[in-house]
Specification:
Layout (H helix, E strand, L loop, with lengths): L2 H22 L20 H4 L1 E4 L12 E11 L2 E14 L2 E16 L8 E5 L2 E2 L1
Antiparallel strand pairs: 1-2, 2-3, 3-4, 4-5, 5-6
Organism: Elysia chlorotica (Eastern emerald elysia)
GO molecular function, one term: lipid binding
Protein name: Lipocalin/cytosolic fatty-acid binding domain-containing protein
């Protein structure tokens, strides 16, 4: 096998992967410093409780392959119960086939209950 061909093929494959990753939004490039994003003051944990529907997300191993994802936050005093659910589907010949519904449970607590709405969420497999 021609070594030059193998090298060109490898470079083409890498460039193709990078272009696909950029188009899919896997990488996010931005110049400069990140803006300061504050959290909501006077956070009311009871009002936050309920079902939240996912509109858009960055790639996450926790949610890989899931569609129609929701998160339900339940008031548990000074903590929140968290149940994240989604439907695992595969696409075959342009049609989606539902495989099964999956969920993971966890707990959320306020990082600093007196100042903001920053949550520390921990699931059975770790913290996110």
């Amino acid at each position: 096998m021609d070594v030059g061909y193998l090298h060109r093929f490898t470079v083409s494959l890498c460039v193709s992967w990078i272009l696909v990753a950029l188009c899919e939004g896997i990488f996010v490039f931005k110049t400069g410093r990140c803006p300061h994003v504050g959290s909501q003051p006077n956070f009311d944990i009871a009002r936050f409780s309920g079902i939240w529907y996912e509109y858009k997300r960055f790639p996450s191993l926790l949610e890989a392959g899931l569609d129609c994802t929701t998160t339900v936050y339940g008031d548990a005093g000074d903590r929140l119960t968290v149940v994240k659910e989604g439907v695992r589907r595969i696409k075959i010949f342009g049609q989606y086939i539902t495989m099964n519904r999956e969920s993971i449970e966890g707990l959320a607590s306020l990082v600093n209950s007196s100042t903001s709405a920053e949550l520390n969420v921990s699931y059975a497999g770790g913290t996110s």
